[in-house]
Write a structure and sequence with these properties.
Keywords: Lyase, Magnesium, Metal-binding, Thiamine pyrophosphate. GO terms for molecular function: magnesium ion binding; oxalyl-CoA decarboxylase activity; thiamine pyrophosphate binding. Belongs to the TPP enzyme family. The protein has 23 helices and 19 strands. With about 575 residues, it is of the alpha/beta class. It has a six-stranded parallel beta sheet with strand order 3-2-4-5-7-6, with helices on both faces. The chain has a six-stranded parallel beta sheet with strand order 15-14-16-17-19-18, with helices on both faces. The protein has a five-stranded parallel beta sheet with strand order 10-9-11-12-13, sandwiched between helices. Bound molecules: adenosine-5'-diphosphate (ADP). Adenosine-5'-diphosphate binds next to helix 11 and strand 12.
């Protein structure tokens, strides 16, 4: 008699063969046994309360580890809840795989009305880097290999892998099954730039009067920290980190011009983009935000990114580590120097802005406002630079990004390319699970609400996550007057006691209304090493509509022009 195995075991064997150590998901028909078999095999299974958060956790795991994070969803609605995270991962270039069980194809395709029927493969396609379906048990090993390869090679992204329930339950000869599984060799091969592309880039840098390096989250993802540091420090070129690239070099680094951002991008005449897109976050490279004559050099793994917004004078297609190594090699023979007038101009602006910031942080109004709360958080995190920081919100995001310095690479996860809300708890869970280190999630009260139920997940797994809620009682702010019987659209509840949610699930809760209380509570929470919420009571009048994005808000632009006309 031959030994048999089944689809459930084969999926797990294939994931393990490819180094997957954790699955984030929610069980239900038809994948409950998949989670059980995975857990029994030694894979860690983290069960969530809503699939989008599980998907966001998988995406963050992918960003932090360069291995695809895996999210497991049920058919139909569970699958659909996973899609926003899959789409967000793809947009952010984070590698993840959403594995979803699905209903009976024979019934779905004739629209006969199966339980949770949906044409999931086609529904997923526009939101993923690629979407695949496995229809035979003997293709499971191949399907997982293909998903892993696609997720991490070239520009990383989200892959959808559809497995109908019937395939999971199919039996197969165990020896043949073992032969059908393989480990992907060199899943994300290095990509070296051509020598003439390197020459072209160096020529532009050497001729520049005001060069600038912009580090993006592609540079953080690349884990080429030593090559980045060497290039920045040997050239002496000032650098500007995008939010998730903060910490690649410490924010306290003398060449950082984060505190002189608008001057740096407004005046630079040669800009080296390292794993950063010239999208809305960089004003599309347009003048007057940028100097109209600026020349762009871009390092990107995806050559199709070049010229997406501005002419790229020197495209460098390749991975960040390989390209920077090639540039450094070239520059060793032909060193460049950065004019002192440029570094001096930037240093002066930086000093002035640092002084303004210090003044804002030192202020102690009652009730507390964003800067004062963030000043307290900053002081605690300066003592604990190895803490992972998750950050989302409007004002909570915009201001924390500037106030909270990062000293270590890949320690900051935030709303990213879409500026999306709802990633907070998923990202915090992944950071804690993947690294075992403490996490502080700095959340606007509105942003927190999108994934707030995952506090239960954080407590169930006793994760070292502290959620600091900057509670001004609203979307943007909490003081909009109500005009009818209902609260105004932007208003939430400034008196909400979010810390009680942590207590409800066995975590620790703190309620604070001054910077000193916040500092003490956050310090204690970090020492405890367990789950906690610090609810910070802020002035409901603190904050501005749309945060730093007021220009993107068509209504407020119209209102502004009306009031300007009036
Ligand atoms: P940010 O928002 O921080 O500016 P983006 O997400 O816009 O960063 O840009 C990241 C870029 O990095 C993407 O265009 C992506 O193709 C690129 N990228 C991702 N991984 C690598 C890598 N290993 N080497 C080079 N480029 C990479």
């Amino acid at each position: 008699m031959t030994t048999q195995t089944d689809g459930f075991h084969l999926v797990v064997d294939a994931l393990k063969a490819n180094g997957i150590e954790t699955i984030y998901g929610i069980v239900g028909i038809p994948i409950t046994d998949l989670a059980r078999v995975a857990q029994a095999s030694g894979i860690r299974y983290i069960g969530f309360r809503q699939e989008t958060s599980a998907g966001n956790a998988a995406a963050a795991a992918g960003f932090l580890t360069q291995r695809p994070g895996v999210c497991l969803t049920t058919s139909g609605p569970g699958f659909l809840n996973g899609l926003p995270a899959l789409a967000n991962a793809t947009t952010n270039c984070f590698p993840m795989i959403q594995i979803s069980g699905s209903s009976n194809r024979a019934l779905v395709d004739l629209q006969r009305g199966d339980y949770q029927d949906l044409d999931q493969l086609n529904a997923a396609r526009p939101f993923a880097k690629a979407a695949y379906r496995i229809t035979r048990v003997e293709d499971i090993g191949r399907g997982i290999a293909r998903a892993v390869r696609t997720a991490v090679s070239g520009r990383p992204g989200g892959v959808y892998l559809d497995i109908p329930g019937v395939v999971l339950g199919q039996a197969m000869d165990a020896a043949a099954a073992a032969d059908s599984v393989w480990r992907v060799v060199d899943p994300a091969p290095r990509q070296l730039p051509a020598p003439d592309a390197v020459d072209r880039a160096v020529e532009i840098l050497a001729a520049a009067q005001r060069p600038l390096i912009v580090l993006g989250k592609g540079a953080a993802y690349a884990q080429a920290d030593a090559a980045i540091r060497e290039f920045v420090e040997t050239t002496g070129i000032p650098f500007l980190p995008m939010s998730m690239a903060k910490g690649l070099l410490p924010d306290s680094h003398p060449q950082s011009v984060a505190a002189a951002r608008s001057l740096a991008i407004g005046r630079a005449d040669a800009v080296l983009l390292v794993g950063a897109r010239l999208n809305w976050l960089l004003g599309h490279g347009d003048s007057p935000q940028w100097d109209a004559g600026a020349k762009f050099i871009q390092i990107d793994i995806a050559a199709s990114e070049f010229d997406s917004n501005q002419p790229i004078a020197a495209p460098l297609a390749g991975d960040v580590g390989s390209v920077l190594a090639a540039l450094s090699d070239h520059l060793a023979a032909h060193p460049i120097s950065v004019p002192a007038a440029w570094t001096g101009e930037l240093a002066e602006r930086r000093e002035r802005n640092d002084a303004k910031m210090a003044e804002r942080l030192a202020d102690d109004p009652h009730p507390m406002r964003f800067y004062n709360a963030l000043g307290a958080i900053r002081a605690v995190l300066q003592q604990n630079p190895d803490v992972y920081v998750v950050n989302e919100g409007a004002n909570a995001l915009d201001l924390a990004r500037n106030v909270i310095d990062m000293e270590l690479p890949r320690h900051r996860l935030d709303s990213g390319t879409w500026g999306v809300m709802g990633v907070g708890m998923g990202y915090a869970i992944a950071a804690a699970v993947e690294t075992g280190r403490p996490v502080v999630a700095i959340e606007g009260d509105s942003a927190f609400g999108f994934s707030g139920m995952e506090i239960e997940t954080i407590c169930r797994y006793r994760l070292p996550v502290t959620v600091v809620i900057l509670n001004n009682g609203g979307v943007y702010r909490g003081d909009e007057e109500q005009t009818g019987g209902d609260p105004a659209p932007t208003v939430l509840n400034a008196r909400a006691r979010h810390e009680l949610i942590a207590e409800a699930f066995g975590g620790k809760g703190y309620h604070v209304s001054t910077p000193a209380e916040l500092r003490a509570a956050l310090t204690q929470a970090l020492v405890s090493g367990g789950p906690s919420i610090v609810d910070c009571e802020l002035d409901p009048a603190a904050g501005v509509e749309s945060g730093h994005l007021a220009a993107l808000n068509p209504t407020s632009a119209a209102r502004k022009s009306v009031s300007a006309d009036a």
